[in-house]
Amino acid sequence: MITLLRPGQDPLEIHFILLDFEGTLSSDRRVHPKAKDKINLLSKRTKIYILTKEEKTLAEETLKKVKAEIVDFKEGKASQQKLDLLRQLGTIRTVAIGNGIDDAPMIEEAGFSICVMGKEGASSEAMQKADVVFTTIIDALDFLLKPLRQKATLGH
Questions:
Q1: CATH of the domain at 51
Q2: Domain encompassing residue 71
Q3: pLDDT tens digits, residue range 106-149?
Q4: pLDDT score recorded for residue 156
Q5: 50 occurs within a structural domain
Q6: C-alpha 52: how far from its chain's center?
Q7: What is the pLDDT at residue 148?
Q8: Is residue 38, in this structure, part of any structural domain at all?
Q9: Quick check: helix, strand or coil at residue 14?
Q10: Which residues pair with 132 in a beta bridge?
Q11: Which residues of 124-147 are buried (b: 16+ CB within 10 A; e: fewer)?
């Protein structure tokens, strides 16, 4: 579990992380080795789901040795399916990380949400609904791993 302290609000006890694959975790279908290491560190404290609209086998091949469950969604239905998974896990216990328009509903409803505006960009809707925005997935994952960064950003 990860505890997120937010000013003027109860702490959030995070048990799950929903992490979009395309454009958020990966850039041009590649995942930075440091991001893989950080996911493995986070997996010791939370259950991580990596969400993909591409072939599941492609994500599995890219994410060998990463301790996360890969969930694939149907193109065109991904937005609703991501939201359904979030609700099944419990919105208040989940961090959602994404960048696309299909991530926006999940980002809006999650207990805490992060938008990553990487090389592939980010939808303005996802950015507006997120609690915080980062320019790299490594910075986003570090935010969850390092409480001092949370304090600096959230101001508690």
A1: 3.40.50.1000
A2: 2-98+108-154
A3: 999 999 999 999 888 999 999 999 999 999 999 999 999 998 88
A4: 56
A5: yes
A6: 12
A7: 81
A8: yes
A9: strand
A10: 114
A11: ebbbebbbbbbebbbebbebbeee
